[in-house]
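Open question from group meeting: does this chain pack into something compact, or does most of it stay loose? Before anyone orders reagents, we agreed to write out a predicted structure and look at it together. Recording both the input and the output here so the notebook holds the full record.
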Amino acid sequence: MREAVRLKDTGYKKGFPDVFVYEPRGGHHGLAIELKRDKGGRVSPSQKEWKEALEARGYRATIAKGYEEAKRVLEEYLAA
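Structure tokens returned:
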């Protein structure tokens, strides 16, 4: 509970992606990645809302299952 209060005090918003790259590439304003485990990771409603809202504003937003997928998405984005 203390961690949630600390995050809220620093401006953290529930469901905001775990990784956010503030670098425009390939026609996008930036890249947002929500990280999930390879198996069993579930996307919350607030995470889905953030993904949709960011995409509507011209960001590339994705959900990556596992390290390898997150690495691939990041490398592809930065190569554009």
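Observations to bring back to the group:
The radius of gyration is 13 Å.
Residues 29 and 59 are 5 Å apart (CA to CA).
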